[in-house]
Design brief:
Strand content: 35-45%
Helix content: 25-40%
Structural class: alpha+beta
Distance between the termini: 40 Å
Number of helices: 3
Shape: globular
């Protein structure tokens, strides 16, 4: 593993809050699932979800600047980050969009990007009975990696759970 990947992974582990999610380990991969319920309509959650600069922690990027994150909410669109000097990084590719209901992206995040992995991140918005929204986040990763899935899955879960928590905080006070 390269020094930069170790630094990013180490930072992710230190910054990750304890996982309150379901995790599943499989040979060569893992799945992490997080959810939150907010007192906001799905359309309001969607409006923030497709603007990662509003909630994605810039410490889990390459530029360290939240405003450098962008997402094109269309099939083939990019969840990308601008880098200094005219550079950029593609974190994930948008593969499915159902406005107000579901956003699905494909890609390996952070230190997973340098591995031979496939990752699928789904954000699902489900209307609640009280007008709120249940947000579910599922990230499935599989392929050849130079570290054990049980070693990296908790860090990935913590980072993704943090993004979900930050998204929920942007749209309303959590209902739970």
């Amino acid at each position: 593993m390269r020094a930069l990947d170790m630094f990013i992974l180490g930072g992710a582990m230190l910054a990750a809050s304890p996982a309150s999610a379901e995790s599943e380990l499989v040979p060569g991969g893992f799945t992490v699932t997080n959810s939150a319920t907010v007192a906001a309509a799905p359309a309001d959650v969607w409006a923030v979800l497709i603007r990662p600069a509003a909630y994605w922690n810039p410490d889990h990027g390459y530029s360290g600047v939240a405003d450098n994150f962008m997402l094109e909410a269309r099939a083939g669109g990019c969840f990308c980050e601008r880098l200094s000097g005219g550079g950029s990084v593609e974190h994930m590719r948008v593969v499915m969009v159902q406005p107000g209901r579901m956003l699905r992206l494909s890609g390996a995040l952070g230190p997973l990007q340098s591995e031979a992995l496939t990752g699928t991140l789904s954000w699902m918005l489900e209307p609640g009975e009280d007008g709120g929204t249940r947000i579910r986040q599922i990230y499935k990763v599989a392929g050849h990696m130079s570290f054990a899935p049980d070693a990296i899955a908790p860090a990935v879960d913590g980072v993704l759970n943090e993004q979900l928590t930050r998204l929920a905080a942007q749209v309303s006070t959590p209902a739970e």
